[in-house]
Design goal:
0% of the residues lie in helices and 64% in strands. It is an all-beta fold. Strands 1, 2, 3, 4, 5 and 6 form a six-stranded antiparallel sheet that branches.
C-alpha cells in the first residue's frame, strides 16, 4: 500500500552502509518527519539509496511517498514505513 504525505523533515539517523543479498552496497537511514495537519503526527520512515541525502534537509517541507508493509515472524507482527519517493513542496 502506498500513500503520500506532506510533512516537514525533523531529522534523521546517521546513514548506514551494508552489503545487500545481491552483493551490492546499500545505504540506508531513518528519516523523521512531522506531518502538516490539524493534529500533526511524527513518523519514522526507512529510506534507501538516493533518498538518504534528503535526510540532511532538516526543516524542508516535502511530499513523501510512503509504502507500508507488515510481516509475521514467530507469531509476532512487525510493521515498516518506507520512503518511496520525495519532492519539495511550496506551501501557500
Amino acid at each position: 500500500m502506498i500513500t503520500t504525505v506532506i510533512a516537514r523533515i525533523a531529522g534523521a539517523t546517521p546513514a548506514e552502509s551494508f552489503q545487500g543479498r545481491d552483493g551490492q552496497c546499500v545505504t540506508k537511514c531513518t528519516i523523521i518527519i512531522k506531518t502538516i495537519e490539524a493534529y500533526p503526527q511524527t513518523l519514522a520512515l526507512t529510506a534507501f539509496g538516493e533518498l538518504v541525502p534528503w535526510a540532511q534537509q532538516t526543516g524542508r517541507t516535502v511530499e513523501v511517498g510512503v509504502g507500508m508493509s507488515s510481516r509475521e515472524y514467530e507469531g509476532r507482527w512487525f510493521s515498516e514505513l518506507r520512503a518511496i519517493g520525495m519532492k519539495y513542496v511550496q506551501l501557500p
